[in-house]
Specification:
731 residues; alpha/beta; Rossmann fold; 24 helices; 30 strands; binds adenosine-5'-diphosphate-glucose
């Protein structure tokens, strides 16, 4: 059993962030009235917040407050409203959340709309949610973010709170890779989530889809057996934690509900938000088919469909409403008799007490979503079976089908099959009904909402996950097929890649084991090693100390080594003098802890040892000085590079080496691997995309064009050792 972590102590406050606050607000004659939301999740999380203290961050639904968090009246926790502008409601909420993510995550791709303007607002609002949660979460033991509206918020929280425990629960399905990759922003969303320590889904197949997506889309390292992901320097635990309901409350409400008014007809029940994922038209068609195939049910059975109005601002929902009105009219017109109409359709919400009575008295619950994260209606129906047991007919495409095995399963797209299953449910003997209901009820009572909260908090509280260190098998899986028996051109950055970053560049010595692995690679007759660095050529040659390699210094402006003629970019001559003038200006900007590194045509201003609060102004001054001298400034790790505005970078330097050494058809001769940790390596990653395998080392915070990430210098060493020892057909 993994150990608990003190950072995530059960005593410390919790911050919950969800799209909506746990209240609804109404403007009335008496002013603003606040009513608690009835949702099950709210009742499950409130006790945790009351016990541990903390804050609920969310959108109040209407324009209530700006900014400041306020204590919720009568509550032991605070609420922090996040205000949304009208445009944000349209684009973040109705747009990206409900028109893009909702259909796509439910694998209903043709319904999804992709609009970059929606995504811009989604990003913006997520940042605001993340920043608010981080502000509230400074002393928190856990920040817990909910659902698809906030997929990017974790990355923002992580920026501000690098050590706080951060967990996420997705209430809807996570689709297979082939669907998720339709999203133009798939990488961004996955990266946003991977800032978490724990990401939980309702069922295992969603967790597996997610693992598959991060592996194939981001090149993250995945341990499928342990359900762990490593992405750069961060690891995330992935879990399936099926949500439960407040079983005993539903059961008690069902017992207390008034008896049915008349027992004239048997009832097949459908209860949903009016949503195209819920398969309501399919359900009605299956009921129609039942009446065709088994006329004995005519005038005996009705379909009672109660649909809560939902998202009527989205066109697809209004279309569905019209479609249902039409289907109900047609079926009722076709079968109704003087005293009986087959479908009773109510377009409204029903209070919980009444709802539980309806659940109790129904003979069959027909739950037929085309896709559903979990589906709580199935569970609520089961909890309310306190008298003659009814039968649950459940779509195999609902998350609930994973555990509610005793239900009669249907494929909602198979109308005939659903009709036959419905017939079976309506004609099932009491003994079988009772056996199935007992088993279902036992499980839902045990795995109720409280049990879910407990297991989520337990999973969120265990020590940060770590994957086993990278091994030969990982590299084999990634590279065997790529390398085959080709010659390998291996390009490596120096600082932060081969050698850990240090306060001062002169201290960044090459670790002896890395040098040994480098030499072993270079000694192979099918590997050519090049070091590509921002240091000056002489400096990087000295630091590496393996003269037989090829070196590209000053981001490739100077190249030397091996069989390649010495290269110095022809435009450099124009910049020697200017570099000196810039150097003396930069030296004038030096404050305590800052210094300027002279690298011939380029310069680097280092500020690693400058206190955080002095950096912003300093960086601005340095940048404008660089630009004044006609140089380009580029951010590096606690440093600013000044480079002459020559159209040359690490990518072009790599191309120069490849063409010079192997000729214009180099891509047919060699396989290329490039490993780097820096923003300047991104030039090479972009240039080599599709032509090579590239690795970005270190923090997962910055986006990368690299194929994969490696956590640190040790992982780079492991890669070099594997490359050196690899069996190649040639050798
Ligand atoms: P929803 O899509 O909203 O939730 P569901 O799980 O079925 O779907 O929950 C619906 C809730 O609304 C139930 O509690 C139900 O009682 C209530 N409800 C439905 N119709 C009603 C009516 N006419 N009157 C009153 N109440 C009504 C999302 C995901 C689900 C996931 C939940 C929780 O889509 O798959 O199960 O979150 O994670």
């Amino acid at each position: 059993m993994a150990r608990k972590d003190s950072n995530a102590s059960a005593e410390r406050p919790v911050v919950v962030a969800s799209n909506r606050l746990p209240f609804t607000f109404k403007h009335t004659a008496k002013g603003l009235v606040r009513e608690p939301s009835a949702g099950g999740l709210v009742s499950a999380l409130e006790p945790v917040l009351r016990k541990r203290g903390g804050t609920w961050v969310g959108w109040p639904g209407i324009d209530v407050w700006e900014g400041e968090s306020i204590a919720a009246r009568g509550e032991a926790y605070r609420i922090r409203p996040v205000a949304l502008s009208e445009t944000e409601v349209q684009r973040y909420y109705h747009g990206f959340s409900n028109r893009t993510l909702w259909p796509l995550m439910h694998s209903l791709a043709p319904q999804a709309r992709f609009d970059a303007r929606d995504f811009v607002h989604y990003e913006e609002v997520n940042k605001r949610f993340g920043a608010a949660a981080a502000e509230e979460g400074e002393d928190a033991g856990l920040v817990w973010i909910h659902d698809y509206q906030l997929l990017l918020a974790p990355a923002e929280v992580r920026k501000h709170l690098p050590d706080t425990r951060l967990a996420f629960f997705l209430h809807i399905p996570f689709p297979p890779y082939d669907i998720f990759r339709l999203l133009p922003w798939d990488r961004e969303l996955l990266r946003g989530l991977l800032a978490c320590d724990l990401i939980a889904f309702h069922v295992r197949s969603y967790a597996q889809n997610f693992l598959d997506c991060v592996e194939r889309t981001l090149g993250a390292r995945v341990d499928k057996a342990e359900m762990l992901v490593e992405y750069g320097d961060r690891s995330t635990r992935i879990r399936a934690l099926p949500l439960g309901i407040e079983f005993e409350r539903y059961e008690a409400l069902a017992r207390a509900a008034p008896p049915p008014q008349s027992a004239r007809e048997r009832v097949v029940l459908g209860i949903d938000r009016l949503d195209y994922t819920k398969g309501i038209p399919e359900r009605m068609l299956a009921f129609e088919r039942l009446l065709e195939l088994h006329p004995e049910h005519r005038e005996e059975v009705i379909l009672l469909q109660i649909a809560v109005p939902s998202r009527s601002q989205v066109a697809e929902y209004r279309k569905l409403k019209r479609e249902l009105d039409e289907i109900v009219g047609r079926i009722n017109g076709r079968f109704a008799t003087a005293g009986w109409s087959p479908i009773r359709y109510l377009y409204r919400t029903v209070d919980q007490q009444r709802l539980c009575g309806i659940y109790r008295d129904a003979d069959v619950a027909l739950v037929t979503p085309l896709r559903d994260g979990m589906n709580l209606v199935a569970k609520e129906f089961v909890a309310c079976q306190v008298e003659a047991p009814g039968v649950l007919v459940l779509s195999r495409l609902a998350g609930a089908a994973d555990t509610m095995r005793e239900a009669l399963m249907v494929n909602p797209y198979d109308i005939d099959g659903s009709a036959e299953t419905l017939h079976r449910a309506l004609t099932m003997e009491e003994e079988e009904r009772a056996s199935r209901a007992t088993a279902l009820r036992r499980r839902e009572r045990r795995d109720d909402l409280g049990a879910w909260v407990t297991s989520f908090l337990e999973e969120a509280g265990v020590e940060r996950p770590t994957l086993a260190p990278l091994q030969g098998a990982d590299f084999s899986a990634w590279l065997d097929n790529f390398l085959k028996s080709y010659r390998l051109a291996l390009f490596l950055d120096y600082d932060g890649t081969l050698s850990p970053l240090r306060e001062h560049p002169s201290k960044a010595r090459l670790p002896p084991r890395v040098r040994k692995a480098l030499i072993a690679c270079a000694e192979r007759n099918d590997v050519d090693v090049s070091i590509v660095s921002g240091r000056s050529l002489a400096d990087v040659q000295k630091m590496v100390g393996v003269p037989e390699l090829t070196f590209a210094g000053n981001h490739g402006l100077e190249i030397d080594g091996g069989d390649i003629p010495h290269f110095s970019h022809e435009d450099l001559v124009h910049y020697r003098q200017r570099a000196e003038a810039l150097a003396s200006d930069l030296e004038r900007c030096e404050v305590d802890g800052a210094w300027t590194e002279h690298k011939g045509p380029t310069l680097t201003y280092h500020y690693r040892a400058v206190p955080e609060n002095r950096r912003e102004q300093l960086v601005e001054d340095v940048r404008s000085n660089i630009v004044l001298h006609g140089y380009q400034s580029r951010d590096a790790h606690c440093a600013i590079e000044a480079r002459p505005p020559i159209g040359w970078d690490k990518g072009r330097a790599v191309l120069h080496i490849l063409r010079t050494r192997y000729g214009p058809a180099w891509s047919e001769e060699v396989r290329v691997i490039y490993v780097g940790d820096d923003q300047t390596d991104e030039d090479a990653f972009r240039f080599l995309a599709g032509l090579s395998t590239t690795f970005r080392v270190g923090s997962a915070d910055t986006p990368t064009a690299a194929t994969r990430r490696l956590p640190d210098v040790d992982a780079v060493r492991a890669l070099l050792e594997w490359l050196a020892a690899r069996q190649s057909k040639q050798s």
